[in-house]
């Protein structure tokens, strides 16, 4: 297994491993540690059955069942289908074209998300990833002192939109999920490293007036998504691309919806909650 730096400010590429055959706990621990260190990983050159991929997904935690049943794969409901098929209804198009951390509108959000590339268009379809850990580190001491200890308030689609964002807002869904709270500065559950936790769902913070909270969230999301904190990656066929939701925001770039050869994209997402069974949780009291 060879791990090398990905072009951009952070991230790593993994080659020389075949996940269609069982791997030792030491190799899996190495992959998990690499994700926690580099925040995103692209494991290249895989040819996996659905069962292989789901078994690999379970190594990272408890796979979540996506809230839209129509996007799940029948036999393996852990797998969420992402496609640019021409028949995709308008309301589902470009649904991830805003900066977010997955399922942050739930009380227990996703820790890790992975995409498996089954089909890739010749052009376009990149994913943008912003490091909220590097962005936190770059804040001045006054801002760190202000936000350390604040509790962020989240609801589905609740964040003020940055320029160019399309934040899906469906009142019935938002109402169903309600309001949840998460630390604004999240300690990583395994490494303890601090990172901003904002997603596209944070709309304020406990103890702040509504306008002040919204302005703070807007400023922090603007800060995190500056180019020096952003890596751009296109998932190729045979890639497993993973990100650590406690250290990064992600955003999809627009894609053409088409069934033409060379334009089709088919990805399978798995998101997990909790800590990998092979890891101990951080001593966050330290
Ligand atoms: Fe997402």
Automatic annotation (TrEMBL):
Q: Which key words tag this protein in UniProt? A: Dioxygenase, Iron, Metal-binding, Oxidoreductase
* Keyword Coiled coil attached: no
Q: Which Pfam families did the record assign? A: TauD
Q: Does the keyword ATP-binding apply?
A: no
Q: Where is the TauD/TfdA-like domain?
A: 6-270
Which biological process terms from the Gene Ontology are attached to this UniProt entry? sulfur compound metabolic process
Record's Gene Ontology CC terms?
A: cytoplasm
The family note in this entry says:
Belongs to the TfdA dioxygenase family.
> What's the name of the protein?
Taurine catabolism dioxygenase TauD/TfdA
**Organism whose genome encodes this protein:** Sphingobium chlorophenolicum
Lineage here is:
Bacteria, Pseudomonadati, Pseudomonadota, Alphaproteobacteria, Sphingomonadales
């Amino acid at each position: 297994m060879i791990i090398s730096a990905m072009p951009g400010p952070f991230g790593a590429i993994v080659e020389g491993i075949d996940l269609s055959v069982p791997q030792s706990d030491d190799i899996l621990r190495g992959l998990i540690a690499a994700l926690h260190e580099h925040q995103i990983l692209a494991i290249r050159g895989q040819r996996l059955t659905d069962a292989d991929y789901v078994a690999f997904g379970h190594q990272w935690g408890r796979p979540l069942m996506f809230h839209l049943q129509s996007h799940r794969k029948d036999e393996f409901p852990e797998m969420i289908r992402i496609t640019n098929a021409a028949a995709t209804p308008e309301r589902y198009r470009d649904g991830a074209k805003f900066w977010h951390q997955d399922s942050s509108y739930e009380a227990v959000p996703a820790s890790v998300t992975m995409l498996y590339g089954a089909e890739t268009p010749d052009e376009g379809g990149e994913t943008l990833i912003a490091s909220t850990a590097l962005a936190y580190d770059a804040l001045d001491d006054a801002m760190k002192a202000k936000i350390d200890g604040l509790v962020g308030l989240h609801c589905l689609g609740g964040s003020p939109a940055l320029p160019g964002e399309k934040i899906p807002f469906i009142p019935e869904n938002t109402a169903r999920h309600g309001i949840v709270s998460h630390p604004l500065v999240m300690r990583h559950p395994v490494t303890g490293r601090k990172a901003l936790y904002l997603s596209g769902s944070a709309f304020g913070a406990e103890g702040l007036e509504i306008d002040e909270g919204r302005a703070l969230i807007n400023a922090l999301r603007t800060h995190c998504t500056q180019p020096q904190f952003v890596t751009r990656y296109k998932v190729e066929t045979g890639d497993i691309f993973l990100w650590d939701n406690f250290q990064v925001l992600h955003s999809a770039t627009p894609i053409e919806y088409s069934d033409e050869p060379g334009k089709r994209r088919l990805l399978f997402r798995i998101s997990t909650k909790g800590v990998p069974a092979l890891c101990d949780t951080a001593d966050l009291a330290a």
